[in-house]
Amino acid sequence: MSTTTRRARLAAAAACLALGTAPFLAGGGDATAAPAPADAKKIDLLAINDFHGNLEKIPSSSSSGRINSTPAGGAEYLASHLDQMRAADAAQDVPTITVAAGDLIGASPLLSAAFHDEPTVTALSMMGLDVASVGNHEFDEGYKELLRMQNGGCLPDGDGANNQNSCPDAAHPFTGARYHYLAANVKYTGTDRTVFPGTWVKKVQGVPVGFIGMTLKATPDIVTKSGVEGLTFTDEVATADAAADALDKAGVKTIVVLLHQGAVPADATKYDGCVGVDGPGLTIAKRLSSKIDVVVSGHTHQAYNCTVQDPAGRPRLFTSGSSYGRMITQIHLAVNPQTKDVERDTTWAQNQIVTNADGTPARQDITDLIAKFNAYVAPIKNKVLGQIAPADAQDTLSRTADADGDSPLGNLIADSQLSDASTITQGKVPVVALMNPGGIRADLVEDANKNVTFGAAFTVQPFNNYVVSMDLTGQQLLDVLNQQWNGKNEGGPNNKILQVAGVSYTYSRGLAAQNGVDALIPGSVKVDLDHDGTAETPLDPAATYRTVVNSFLSDGGDGFTTLASGTSKYFGGLDIDALASYLSAHHPYTPVPTDRVSSVS
User: Fold this and answer.
1) Which of 93, 200, 317, 402 is deepest in the core (most CB within 10 A)?
2) What is the chain's mean pLDDT, rounded?
3) Alpha-carbon torsion, ordered 131, 132, 134, 135, to 10 deg
């Protein structure tokens, strides 16, 4: 395709954009970009996002272990694919820069989380990551811990006493990331000082390439309050535009944004296309300064390869590479040697699957790292907590909710938190428990020996949230329950139906589908005041009820802002410990009916 033809196509698509008939252009994966000028400087970006500490490949029987039907992921295979792509580029004299768009750590499997994600940071450094934006999960343990991820050092955490063990190999302490974290829109509250630099520049082929790294502005809404204490998160567009201006004035004309915010495609199977993609990341990508050439995004765990129109009417790549190390986005930049800026018409991208079952070799040094930490984690991971009844067959306790929003696993977790003695203070025993469904990350599965292990329980609840008890009035409880359909949870269809213990209620499905409507059926909310397993006492709006939630919900997370107003808050132990103790005390565990939440048409 000629440059003239390509520009004509882009102009026609831009006209559709202006008319509102198309929110974006075709995906970059069709490789229809015009040929680069003969003297153009070629540079490839190799991008990942949302790795979440997934060092080991996930079985392809899980959707998280494949792309469509292709088994994918695993750090040892991600490293090999990166090496192969770099080698192919080097053979063509094309330099590469390896980048990431946040959530590399946090909400990680036990293999990484038991060691405060030190193995993941080490592995990503070994595989040659150059630069990464922070994501919301980078703040799960607070900015001081994130600074340690960058700079190194060990924590005095008791050598596994609480199922975590920083620096288990005393001869090889954690030295921190060899890549650069960027946080342009994360500032210490009351200052203009960012937690990490906002930008980073690498000169290749005589061209300075500038990177701006950001997380989503709404990070405080989705991270435990203690994780973002003392920090302010600024607007993504205003922040990036200011950073782009500064880079431009410094002579950096090739500018890439690493944005931990994204979008969702209408057809997730079209991983190298741009089918019905929509969401806040797309809006940001279209609004950013025209000085910015590429937006590498993340957060939604989706794969797409789009070209959007910037405010000056020029095409701009907007990409995302799935999650868990299952995909690499290869972005082919062509830079004008005179202006040092990207020739947008000749720039294109490909989302490539990190295959792990097609003969691709595992990189041995990463395999060795995984094996070493598997040996360290074994005593923690293999501790038996109990079984799921019936005991004569391998079983699974599902997190999948019924039509009303109640799930077997959700009930177990709510029961475990309600029974957790660590939340009792001054004789105040909780009577209600509430659990957010998004915090239940997997089904609870017995191993081959029909045992539920700590490792399996941790896979279900990997966040290390604390369990918090508080006083709520009956009216506040009603408000919390109605926030399942109101405020930040308006609009469905994926309303956040809380998993509950000690309380039951009925709601109207029709009302729940309407924005801003209280859907609870008046008088249906009942509480189990005598702890006999049956919620039978009508809730009194004027009474006070001791309620237990995790620390994320306690801070108003997932849009349940009323919980932030609870009084007499008392922090107990970790939620994973509450679950582990409950399973051990109720062995074998018999699932209870999902009858706590009901609905009417």
Assistant:
1) 317
2) 91
3) 180
Provide the phi-psi class of 143: left if phi over 0, else alpha when psi is between -120 and 50, else beta.
alpha
Reduced 3-state DSSP string for 449-499: CCCEEHHHHHHHCCCCCEEEEEEEEHHHHHHHHHCCCCHHHCCCCCCCCCE
pLDDT above 50 (res 418)? yes
Mean pLDDT (whole number) for 462-486: 94
Per-residue pLDDT of 121-157, as tens digits, reads 999 999 999 999 999 999 999 999 999 999 999 999 8
Rg (CA), the chain: 25
**Residue 48, strand partner residues:** 100
Per-residue pLDDT averaged across 284-310, rounded?
Answer: 97
Residues 6+ apart with CB under 8 A from 191: none
Q: How far apart (Å, rounded) are the C-alpha atoms in residues 326 and 551?
A: 31
Pairing of strands 96-100, 41-48: parallel
Q: How many residues does the chain have?
A: 601
CA pair distance 152, 173, nearest whole angstrom: 8
Q: Please, are residues 402 and 411 in contact by the beta-carbon 8 Å criterion?
A: no
Number of neighbours of residue 11 by Cβ within 10 angstroms: 11
Which has the closest alpha carbon to 307: 254, 346, 336? 346
Residue 422, helix vs strand vs coil? helix
**Whole-angstrom distance, CA of residue 227 vs CA of residue 55:** 24
- Angle between the 75-91 and 118-126 helix axes, to the nearest 10 degrees? 20
Two structure tokens written together for 150: 């960058």
Q: Confirm if 126 and 474 have CB atoms less than 8 A apart.
A: no
Tokens representing residue 324 in the block? 């868990």
User: What's the mean pLDDT in 405-419?
Assistant: 97
Q: How far apart are CA 137 and CA 100, in angstroms?
A: 14
Identify whether the C-beta of residue 297 lies closer than 8 Å to the C-beta of residue 319: yes
- pTM of the model as a whole: 0.82
**DSSP code at position 393:** S
Element of type H or E holding 309 = strand 303-309
d(CA 583, CA 580): 5
E-strand ranges in 158-235 read: 180-182, 186-188, 199-204, 207-215, 231-233
Element (H, E) at 121: helix 118-126
Say how many C-beta atoms besides its own lie within 10 A of residue 581's C-beta: 17
Burial (Cβ within 10 Å: 0-12, 13-18, ≥19) of residue 259: buried
**How does strand 466-473 pair with strand 432-435?**
unpaired
Q: Quick one: tokens of 378?
A: 């074994």
Q: How far apart are CA 107 and CA 470, in angstroms?
A: 25
Q: Look at residues 97, 152, 105, 95 and name the one whose alpha carbon lies nearest to residue 129.
A: 97
pLDDT, one tens digit per residue, over 427-458 is: 999 999 999 999 999 999 999 899 999 999 99
The pLDDT-based confidence of 10 (bands split at 50, 70, 90) is: very low
Higher pLDDT, 21 or 600: 600
**At a CB cut-off of 8 Å and minimum separation 6, what does 8 contact?**
none
